[in-house]
Specification:
Elements: H1 2-24, E1 43-45, E2 53-55, E3 64-69, H2 74-89, E4 94-99, H3 103-113, E5 119-123, H4 127-131, E6 139-143, E7 149-154, H5 159-171
Parallel strand pairs: 3-4, 4-5
Antiparallel strand pairs: 1-2, 3-6, 6-7
């Protein structure tokens, strides 16, 4: 009889530290299987003109960002003004991957909030996002001139994160 009550208490005591550790982790530190490896190939219809394609060849040979976003994503709205500012500064070309979304709301979003993207690939079924290993939106990938993923950030991007996680890699030899 005592054993029947003791087992759940012991299990709870063992699982509690694991739960606390998991909840205390920074959600933006989500590993990417592509860090240091070639970025996945991208070939999607252009959100503005479905007859055109947005492909990884569009940013081949240059340092670029690939930003996974959607209109239903609260964090995407939080980071959008920063992406517009970053695009206006001309520091780096930004390519969008509109993930699990609908075309018309996405086009309205870009018209109303500004379009920081050189081009946006439309991924309504989420298959390209899965290829990138996306856990959610927003996620931003820094791609080096050699086509390798230099950095991944899950969650809204802002100036502080940009300066801390991205700028040193762009300025360093890793961006070549």
């Amino acid at each position: 009889m005592k054993l029947r009550f003791l087992v759940p208490i012991v299990l709870f005591a063992v699982l509690l530290p694991i739960l606390i550790y998991g909840l205390s982790r920074d959600p933006s530190i989500v590993p990417s299987p592509y860090l240091g490896k070639p970025a996945p190939a991208m070939d999607l219809p252009n959100i503005e003109n479905p007859d055109e394609r947005v492909t990884s060849a569009d940013y081949a040979g240059e340092v670029a960002l690939v930003n996974i976003w959607a209109t239903w994503c609260v964090g995407c709205r939080q980071e959008h003004a920063f992406l517009v500012t970053l695009a206006e500064r001309g520091e780096i070309p930004i390519f969008g991957l509109n993930w699990r979304d609908q075309r018309q709301p996405a086009l309205t979003w870009l018209r109303q909030l500004g379009n920081p993207y050189v081009a946006v690939g439309f991924d309504p079924d989420g298959s390209a996002g899965i290829d990138w290993g996306a856990y959610g939106a927003p996620e931003t990938f820094l791609i080096g001139r050699n086509g390798r993923v230099l950095q991944k950030h899950a969650g809204p991007l802002n100036e502080a994160i940009w300066q801390q996680k991205f700028v040193p890699l762009i300025e360093g030899a890793g961006a070549d």
